[in-house]
């Protein structure tokens, strides 16, 4: 805050009269100097905080506890609700060649999110890395055991279908379960979950790290066109748009496009563990990957640091560009095609 200059003026007035002179004291005058535009901008620049998971500037510290939601990615569930507000979205195989999403929210909570789908153990691992409140509707047997153990604060549609969760009338189950963030916070309050907890900040840089020029590319899962995403970099906005079969990813309610600053692709071991095709995915051992930012492709390594997947270069961790990030977890980097 700019310093205020306060000054006082005392004036002695001598009044002549037959009975003598009289002294009058004028009260101090307070004057406030208005800041210039340049000073205001400098103050904002110096005092700005940043969101821990996007690196974007904010006027005051963001103390929301992260909330991680398993979001349906089946074609019948698109377009989804609330993905445009997610700080980070993780895309992983559920069973067969079908992917599912884990959307992590901290900087902004959308009004509505969904459709919500069932949990897997590695979805829970992603959520635990940020100390999130975890939201899902259903679970695999292994995921149910983890949730029942109390390892993570969670709300599940199996217990709250029709109360905290609601079914949309324009879609059929299992593609129609939604939850509002008002209901998430209501459920968290009822169960005594902490809602103020700042996650460990990621590392960000406005410049990022320069690599090989790559303006467009695609990521597929077993070459299934329903789960193949195309990305196009826009130099005017310094962000990527995401498409599937020529259709841009947008928010269902607002029609707002999802724009991304970083696409991080990691290769890791996948193992089918049951007759349904459910998997175990290794999120701890590290390995190779790609990081796309600012229209460049970087060949990177990835490591799991306290439950969070981090890109590494030869000299250490690599920064993300401030903004939203999409993380693809794939069985092989051959899933990535350079256009």
Topology:
Elements: E1 6-7, E2 29-30, H1 37-47, E3 49-50, E4 57-58, E5 67-72, E6 88-93, E7 99-105, E8 112-113, H2 121-129, E9 133-136, H3 141-148, E10 154-156, H4 157-160, E11 165-167, E12 177-180, H5 181-191, E13 212-213, E14 216-219, E15 229-234, E16 239-244, E17 247-248, E18 259-260, E19 262-267, E20 270-272, E21 279-281, E22 287-293, E23 296-305, E24 308-313, E25 316-317, E26 325-330, E27 336-338
Parallel strand pairs: 5-9, 6-26, 9-10, 19-26
Antiparallel strand pairs: 1-2, 3-4, 5-7, 6-7, 8-12, 11-12, 13-23, 14-15, 14-27, 15-16, 16-17, 16-18, 19-22, 20-21, 22-23, 23-24, 24-25
Question: Could you describe the 3D structure shown?
Answer:
- The chain is mainly β.
- It has two domains: 6-49, no CATH class; 67-338, YerB-like fold (3-Layer(bba) Sandwich), CATH 3.50.90.
- It has five helices and 27 strands.
- The protein has helices spanning 37-47, 121-129, 141-148, 157-160, 181-191; strands at residues 6-7, 29-30, 49-50, 57-58, 67-72, 88-93, 99-105, 112-113, 133-136, 154-156, 165-167, 177-180, 212-213, 216-219, 229-234, 239-244, 247-248, 259-260, 262-267, 270-272, 279-281, 287-293, 296-305, 308-313, 316-317, 325-330, 336-338.
- The strands form six sheets. Strands 5, 6, 7, 9, 10, 13, 19, 22, 23, 24, 25 and 26 form a twelve-stranded mixed β-sheet that branches.
- It is globular, with a radius of gyration of 27 Å.
- The protein starts with 5 loop residues before the first strand and ends with a strand.
